[in-house]
């Protein structure tokens, strides 16, 4: 499966915040350390806040922080909220023109594979990804 840039950036934001649980961060700061577009990151953070992963506070002393403990956030759950399309092939779509959709077993096999993929990621918590925050932040030159 190929993840979108949106999901990649969402996971990066969460890892950055998870590595600094006692501090607030700004979108500008996160965009700078990762070398990514601040405008794009704004959309990502808005989505994360809407789904309850990140708390965003405006104004002086504001910024971003995790909305829940890192041990409660799984990569699988984040991917489910940031990816819009898990349709791997045409037969997953409501409207498809494949003539063998009925008897074809490929769809079930691909669905099983996707379920297994997400099940593995459901076992990966943000806390496990930021277990070594100093090394993570050093890699980002923070």
Automatic annotation (TrEMBL):
- InterPro entries reported in the protein's UniProt record: Tscrpt_reg_Rrf2, WH-like_DNA-bd_sf, WH_DNA-bd_sf
Keyword hit for DNA-binding: yes
- GO CC terms in record: cytosol
Under PROSITE patterns, the record lists: HTH_RRF2_2
The molecular function terms in GO held by this entry are: DNA binding; DNA-binding transcription factor activity
Residues crossing the lipid bilayer are none
Q: Pfam families in the record, alphabetically?
A: Rrf2
Q: Which NCBIfam families does the entry link to?
A: rrf2_super
Q: Which PANTHER family match?
A: HTH-TYPE TRANSCRIPTIONAL REPRESSOR NSRR, WINGED HELIX-TURN-HELIX TRANSCRIPTIONAL REGULATOR, RRF2 FAMILY
What is the protein name for this chain?
Nitrite-sensitive transcriptional repressor NsrR
Q: Say which species the protein is native to.
A: Hyphomicrobium sulfonivorans
């Amino acid at each position: 499966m190929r993840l979108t840039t949106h999901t990649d950036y969402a996971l990066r934001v969460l890892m950055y915040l998870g590595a600094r649980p006692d501090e607030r961060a700004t979108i500008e700061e996160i965009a700078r350390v990762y070398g990514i577009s601040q405008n794009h990151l704004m959309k990502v953070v808005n989505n994360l806040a809407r789904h309850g992963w990140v708390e965003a506070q405006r104004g002086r002393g504001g910024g971003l922080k995790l909305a829940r403990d890192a041990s409660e956030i799984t990569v699988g759950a984040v991917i489910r909220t940031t990816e819009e399309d898990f349709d791997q092939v045409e037969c997953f779509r409501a409207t498809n023109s494949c003539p063998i959709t009925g008897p074809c077993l490929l769809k079930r096999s691909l669905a099983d594979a996707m379920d297994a993929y997400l099940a593995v990621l459901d076992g990966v918590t943000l806390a496990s990804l930021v277990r070594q925050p100093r090394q993570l932040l050093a890699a980002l030159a923070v």
